[in-house]
Amino acid sequence: PDACGGFCGVCAPSVTCENGVCKVGCGDGTCDSSEDCDSCPGDCLCDEASELCYQGQCCTIPECPEDAECGAVFGCGTSWSCGQPCLGGMVCVMHKCES
């Protein structure tokens, strides 16, 4: 990093001077090690179609089995419902309604 402060020069726009060193900040388009999708979502984007930001990490949203009738899958700190609740006293076993 470039030296800055005093007579050492000036940092580029969107970069701050910390303790004599130019430090890139949130909003510069680069997701650096001090940023994550919670603290700087503009720089650290998750894939909106398949990911959520969970505890600062991009987390892949789980998918229900293709033939799921019921039940749920868990991921990203959330339970995702698959299909419908079983009716008529049937119970959900391995994503299928069984009596």
How would you describe this protein?
The protein has strands spanning 15-18, 21-24, 51-54, 57-60, 72-75, 78-81, 91-93, 96-98. Strands 1-2 form a two-stranded antiparallel ribbon. It is rod-shaped and about 80 Å long. By secondary structure, it is an all-beta fold. The model has no long low-confidence stretch (mean pLDDT 86). The chain is built from no helices and eight strands. Helices cover 0% and strands 30% of the residues.
Secondary-structure blueprint of this entry?
Layout (H helix, E strand, L loop, with lengths): L14 E4 L2 E4 L26 E4 L2 E4 L11 E4 L2 E4 L9 E3 L2 E3 L1
Antiparallel strand pairs: 1-2, 3-4, 5-6, 7-8
Short descriptors:
99 residues; mainly beta; two-stranded antiparallel sheet; two-stranded antiparallel ribbon; 30% strand; rod-shaped
Structural class: mainly beta
| Shape designation | rod-shaped
Give the total of beta strands: 8
- Specify Rg, calculated over alpha carbons: 23 Å
The poorly predicted ranges are none
Cα distance, first to last residue? 66 Å
Helical segment tally? 0
- Residues in helices, as a percent range: under 10%
Element-level helix/strand string: EEEEEEEE
Largest sheet: 2 strands, antiparallel
Mean pLDDT: 86
Strand content: 25-35%
Short description:
The protein has 99 residues and is mainly beta.
